[in-house]
Write a structure and sequence with these properties.
about 525 residues; alpha/beta; Rossmann fold; 60s Ribosomal Protein L30, Chain: A; 17 helices
Length: about 525
Amino acid sequence: MPRILVADPIAADGVDLLQSRPEIQVDVKTGMKPPELLAVVGVYEGLVVRSETKVTSEVIKHGSKLRVIARAGIGVDNIDLEAATGAGIAVVNAPTGNTVAAAEHTIALMLALSRNIADANQSMKEGLWKRSAFMGIEVRNKTLGIAGLGRVGTEVARRAQSFGMRLVGYDPFVAPEYARRLGVELLTLEEMLAQSDFITLHTPLNEGTRQMIGAPQLAIIKEGARIINVARGELIDEAALLEALDSGRLAGVALDVFAQEPPVDSPLPMHPKVLVTPHLGASTQEAQREVAIEAAEQVLAVLSGQPARNTVNAPFLPPEVHEVVAPYIQVGTVLGKLLTYLADGQPVGLTIKHEGEIARHETPILKAAVLAGLLGPVSSQHVNLINAPLLAQQRGLNVTEQRNEATPEYASILTATLETTDGSITLSGTSMRDEPHIVKVNDYWLDITPSTPYMLFVDNEDQPGSIGAVGTLAGRHNINISFMEVGRANLRGRAMMVLGLDDPVPPEVLEEIRALPQIHTARLVTL
């Protein structure tokens, strides 16, 4: 009889669903300390947690019978995905159950902020009647800027339309047609901040979005604007936010999340212009019921030998194609990630071309790998080989695949072309010695092994001094160059210079490189 351990409190509906299968034994043991969990986890095939229980590599090692770990919620930060994947354990989550709850909380904070509801309520409880002290504003005819048009951002947009608001948005990986259907005008982040009366954040937390609202962004924000954050506290530089509040640039801020929770050492909760709630975005009875049921359904699916729709770690490759196709999964992921950093404009379509030996096999996993690399840096949820195609479809990205069993250059080559509103970019890659190699960037043939933390792609004139000028600037700013590769279309024409770097390039140094007379463009990629 398979056994499932529910290690954190979840809604009774989820437990009831698990217990509805008479062939499965369900044990609810919450509040266990790590040693207690290690002592019992070895007898279970399924484990259900929320955020309290940490499913470490040690837990996974002791859970020798585990086939599925479910997170009743969207985040899987408390689960060691690498260890679970290595052990062949499916990790599933419940990303949709709390979407409406988070969107409604965003709207509630926006309205409360605009009408001074919290302060007025406190004043009344103190026995005061101060109508003139709490003059508010209407949201009608105001501009709402939505950073991130994923699930929650989309639901916020739909609700805000009913208030007669003008909607603008920033999301580098949403197709323009999708935004138009939502009634959202896509802008750059800077344009959105400068035009918005209210700004709400719904982007994922990664190195590209950490402190995406800092001092430079707050300096261009519309004076008297209001910010709402129900996503991640780390999206905002809290020190810079405090300065903007004290200076009077911001009329108000509503925060449900903080960089450190609880925010015991932060002055923000006590600031008179700040409305705060203790991470309540998903705290509704309906949301907790939905995520519990969603998690339970997927546990039962996996234990029944069926695929789960929200698996967040890599799928298994059939043995007959593993030897040929497996090395190209990493190639596809690298191609997709590079496209994210190198492309300009909003994505419209993606073409993936399989050539050589890999074209003789059904390779949806390679399509998923390219999409996972492409969407991973910009998605609010964990992107993997299972859910990447669905996320691309939801974002309105048209994906086309082509096959050609013959290729004169390599045994196999994978090519990805991203069409955007500003043009297109094409990257090709192959696998050699079990390592991904980027062998073509647009029309430039070269050979790059993405083995460094950073890579600098420089489009330049092929003339004496071009390479030296960039190298000199790097040396002057103590940026170590690991490798350099150059591809050119013709003699003394345009060329592509790619530098592997051990150190990041500060924005001001990148501008120095771009200002060199022989340089057309320079892009830094963080791997």
